[in-house]
Amino acid sequence: MRLKLATQLHLGFAAAVLLALAITGMAWWITLNYEHDVEVEHQKVLGATIALAEAESALWQLRYGLPQFMVGDTAERRRILAEEPRWYEIIEARLETYARQTTAEHHQPQRQALAELRAEYQRYKEARPKFFELYQAGRVEEAARWRALTTTPYGAATVKALGRQIALERAHAEAEAREESETLATIRIMLAFLTGALLLFLAFGYAFALRALRPIRALQMQAEQVVREQLGEELDPLDHGNEIATLVASVQRMSERFTVHAAEMARAEAALRREHEALDRMVAERTVALESANRELDLRHHRSQLLTEMTGLLQTVRDLDEAAQVLPRFLEPLFEPNAGALYVIKSSLNYLDLLVRWGQMPFAPTFETTNCWGLRRGQPYLVEHADGALVCAHADAGARATLCVPMVAEGATLGLLHLVWAQPLTDAAAAQAWRAHTQRVAEQLGLALANLRLRAQLRDQSIRDIQTGLYNRRFLEESLPRDLARAEREKYPVAVFMLDVDHFKKFNDTYGHEAGDAVLHALGRVLSESVRVGDLACRFGGEEFTVALPRVSPEQARDWAERFMQRVRGMEVKAGGLSLPGVTVSMGLAFAPEHGADPETVIQAADLALYEAKRGGRDRLVVYASASPSKTADQGAP
Amino acid sequence: MTTILIVEDNPQHMMLAATLLELNGYAVLKAENAEDGLALARSRQPDLVLMDIKLPGMDGLEAVKQLRADAATRAIKVIVLTSFRDEYPEAEILASGADAFLPKPYHHKDFLGTMTAVLGH
């Protein structure tokens, strides 16, 4: 486990302080020790001095004991003799002590003095027992000689010199000790000062380090926080001990992360770029698709508009012929750029007639229904590839693809929508689209054709006279103004006949209404057989008829009338199995615009001519002459 | 002699109608507009007026109403002639006071028949 910087700092500081204190203490101790040594030395010197003094003193003691011995009683003598060895011991011990304490180089004189002193003592020691012995034996003179030997002042001068020497030495030692002591005191003061300075320095360093540590701690905490919060990682406990270690570990993590991130970023960027490119491509594709879809939509819209318009227009056309004029305008753009044709079943159920066609391909004008597979199957028949396929027989040999869509409405097949292509259809989807589109158009056309047919039937019912099969008076009033207007525009005459069955009322009364009806029916048939296409034959009312023949001369009109009257005369009419007698007609003829530019007038003129024909004996034609009325103005009275 | 007043602006038609009437023994009076027709009706007191409905100025129906409004002409019979191009409702024509109406072009039988019916012969 690593220690935190602060801890390290604390510990380091403490160690430094302790070290400083230890060093100081040791130095202190050394000085103290040294002082002690000096003291010991001094004491030694002192001790030697004392020992010498004691030795001298003991010697003196011994000496002063002798007179007592000589004057004393026996008891006293015994005591002195008993004490003698003790004094020797003391002296010898002291001498020995001194000897021990004067072993230094500079103690040579002391040792010299000591040697003399020892010799003196030795002599004395030998002399004393002799004295005692002699003295006790009563040999006083002899004893006195030995006594003298023992009382001779031995080495007094030496001892004195020795004493002086010792005093000197002592002073010297004391001075030296004092000096040393002062030096040591100085050293100790300096040591204390140094220690204080060191401690101060350390304290400063500590404070500074603590200060310096703060940003590092902050940095470390930040780094750690970043690692924890941003990277979502916890540092290894091992890495946690020390700020620098944490910082390093954090930065390392961050750096690893950053590397990873950078790599990821690069990857992400690459991916993004790829995505972007893909998106661009997709957008481009979509745009193309959209444009195509738009075009498709436009086309559909356009077609749907065309279809609507066509359907609307087809509701206003009166017949197939008009439809044939209207249809190419729609069918061509509806099926652009294809050629095609619209066939209708007009009258016969077995044949189809070409109604309209468009495009640059030939089409059969008519064909049998059995020649078309579409019609035979009753559903659209698409040949995408003419080669080898079953192609309808009615299709042109040049067609490489064909489509036949039967138009069916109200259960009846009304016709066929036929498309051809000069090239085979390779795109199946397009082919299906064409098929669907054609089917849609075919449905509309089928309905329109059915409607047209229905309307034709209805119109027929409203403009035809059921009894005679001729047009009715309403149709006459509708179409004659048109015919006359055209005639006036194109400058040709129109012959207008009014005709009337002679004696019809009497015929009716005689033979019955059934017979009358039969006559009218027969006359209607003869009349419709007698007129050309474009001529107009109507039942005007009752037994009266009107005929308009455009582009005929007066002679032609007269001839026609004569032929017609002839046919009427030869008409055989039966009613109820009974042959009826023949009938005749009277006819009045007038010309437009000669006798009347408007239908009313010309009809009225023809009617006036008819009136004259009746008056003239019936079964005849009278041509209106503007001069004639005045001649007959006075004939007949009410 | 029964006198018929024809009020008709189309001269051809006037002639045709007049011819037909004359051929049948009627005396014919002619007016080309409603105003003249009304004056003639008052002054000459015809038995019947054939009134064309479409006339310059006052139209036929208005003229019939005036005939009916005037005591001097109230009794005169009136047949209104209509053209298939101006489609007047039958009710409107009869409401004006006309005795009958006849669509042009007419067949002489219808014309004469209607006349006879109106005149009560």
Quick structural summary:
The complex is a heterodimer of chains A (638) and B (121). With 638 residues, chain A is of the alpha+beta class.
Walk me through what this model shows.
The complex is a heterodimer of chains A (638) and B (121). Chain A is of the alpha+beta class and 638 residues long. Chain A contains 15 helices and 13 strands. In chain A, the strands form 3 sheets. Chain A has a 6-stranded antiparallel β-sheet. Chain A has a 5-stranded mixed β-sheet with strand order 8-9-7-12-13, sandwiched between helices. Chain A has a two-stranded antiparallel sheet with strand order 10-11. Chain A is rod-shaped and about 255 Å long. Chain B is of the alpha/beta class and 121 residues long. Chain B has helices at 11-23, 34-44, 60-69, 90-95, 108-119, and strands at residues 3-7, 27-31, 48-52, 77-83, 100-104. The model of chain B has no long low-confidence stretch (mean pLDDT 90). Classes of the chains: A alpha+beta (638), B alpha/beta (121). At the A-B interface, helix 14 of A face helix 1 and helix 5 of B.
